[in-house]
Amino acid sequence: MTAIPARLDHLVLATPDLAATVADFTRRTGVVPAPGGVHVGLGTRNHLVSLGGTSYLEIIGPDPGRPEPAGPRPFDLDSLAAARTVTWAISPPDLDAAVATARARGYDPGEIRPMSRRRPDGTLLRWRLTDGRTQHPSGLVPFLIDWGTSPHPTASELPTTPLLSMTATAPAPDEIRPLLAALGTRLALAEGPVGLAFTVDTPRGPVTFG
């Protein structure tokens, strides 16, 4: 099995303190993540790092410059005690068809809903994704995303730390594998506590984040 899943769009490193996690990433890798922008209405913002090709790392956390959102922030940000790689996304060629196929195979990745983010230069990016409410609670089964006509985040000048590998552990890996297969993807899985980790190549050598 390859160490990097096919059609990987991005990894999500969620944190209760975005500035501190960006500083930690910079210290460990020697690479400064680029500001991504503000998620409209969600009370979050992000920083981005290219993982090579059309894959990237999203570091996401609460936006202290925005009012409290009407509902909970995504990725359980309101209850996180420390930064953690919480999930990942794949980008199928046809989002609607991929959702229909997954449901036919016995896994419902959730309803498709629109999202948006405003970049620091004012550009509004729009995309569609599966909402995650029916996603496996481990976060090890990816959500699906379609950038449509918006420029992909990797189309802008991002700092790069090439992705070397991506691994996961779960108490019952055989429970996860059929769900991955329903989405047409795979992930290196071993038995253990729920966890998702990735290793990137950096000016300071390989660095692993969990």
Q: Kindly state the percentage of residues in helix.
A: 10-25%
Tell me how many strands there are: 12
The secondary-structure class comes to alpha+beta
Query: How many angstroms does the end-to-end distance come to?
Result: 20 Å
Overall mean pLDDT: 93
The H/E string reads EHEEEEHEEEEHEEE
Radius of gyration: 16 Å
Q: Hey, roughly how much beta strand do the residues contain?
A: 35-45%
Q: Give the assembly state of these chains.
A: single chain
List the strand order in the largest sheet: 1-4-3-2-6-7-8-5
- Outline the biggest β-sheet: 8 strands, mixed, barrel
Q: With helices defined by DSSP (H or I, 4 residues minimum), what is the helix count?
A: 3
Shape: globular
Instruction: Give unreliable regions as ranges.
Output: none
What does this structure look like?
This protein has 210 residues and is an alpha+beta fold. Helices cover 15% and strands 36% of the residues. The strands form 2 sheets. The chain has an 8-stranded mixed barrel with strand order 1-4-3-2-6-7-8-5. The radius of gyration is 16 Å and the shape is globular. The two termini are 20 Å apart. The model has no long low-confidence stretch (mean pLDDT 93).
